[in-house]
Amino acid sequence: MRFMDAKKTNLTVAAVIGLMLVGAILSWFLAPKIIEVGMDSPFSNEQKHALFERHAHETSYPKAATEVCFRLEPGFYKKGDVYGEYVRFKATAEVIDTFVESTLGLGSKRAVPTDYASWHQGVGDYEWWRPMSVTDPVYYEDGRKFITVDSANGIVYYSYVRSYSEVKGISAYGE
C-alpha cells in the first residue's frame, strides 16, 4: 500500500508543478503589454484613439487635440513599482481648459507641485515626455493625477499613478 501512496503523491506533485509551469507560460504570453505611441507613430488619429480607448482606464482620449502621444502601463509590476498612464498632446487653450476641468477640475491648480508629483512627472525618458522642462508651467494635481500645462506651446502632460508607492523617500501621501 505504501508504494501506491508514494506513487500517487509523486504524481500529484508532478501535476501541480506542471500546472504551475503552464500557468507561468500562459501569463507570459497573455499578459498585457506596455502600450506606447510616440510622435513617430505610424498610427492615424482614429487608430490611436481606438488603441487608447481599449487600454486606458483613467482618462478619455483628447479627440480635439493634435500630436497625441501616450504610454499605458499595465498593473502587473511587483509591489513598490510605480506604473500608470501618461498622455501628452497639443491643443488650443479652450480644449486644454476643458480637459483639465473634466479630468481634475480647475480648482486643482497648484503654484508648485508636491515632491511626489514632481518626481513622478520626471519619470520616463521618452522623446515626447518632458513636463519638467516646461519654462513657465501651470500645475494641476489631485491625488494620483497630475497635469502640467505648457501654455506658451499649448501642450498638456497628464499622468496618472496606479500605485501609491514609496519611491526614494518621497511618499504619495505627502508624509
Fold and architecture overview:
- Mean pLDDT is 78; it is low at 164-175.
- Strands 1-2-3-7-6-5-4 form a 7-stranded antiparallel β-sheet, with helices on both faces.
- The chain is built from 4 helices and 9 strands; from the N terminus they run αβαββαβαβββββ.
- The protein is 33% helix and 23% strand.
Shape: elongated
**Discrete helix count:** 4
List low-confidence stretches: 164-175
Strand order, biggest sheet?
1-2-3-7-6-5-4
What is the residue-averaged pLDDT? Answer: 78
Roughly how many Å is the radius of gyration?
Answer: 22 Å
Percentage of helical residues?
25-40%
Topology of this protein?
Blueprint: H1 2-30, E1 35-37, H2 45-55, E2 66-72, E3 84-90, H3 93-103, E4 109-110, H4 115-121, E5 138-142, E6 145-150, E7 155-161, E8 166-167, E9 170-171
Antiparallel strand pairs: 1-2, 2-3, 3-7, 4-5, 5-6, 6-7, 8-9
Keywords:
single chain, alpha+beta, 2 domains, 7-stranded antiparallel sheet, 33% helix, disordered C terminus
Write a brief structural summary.
With 175 residues, the protein is an alpha+beta fold. The protein is built from four helices and nine strands; from the N terminus they run H-E-H-E-E-H-E-H-E-E-E-E-E. Strand 8 (166-167) and strand 9 form a beta hairpin.
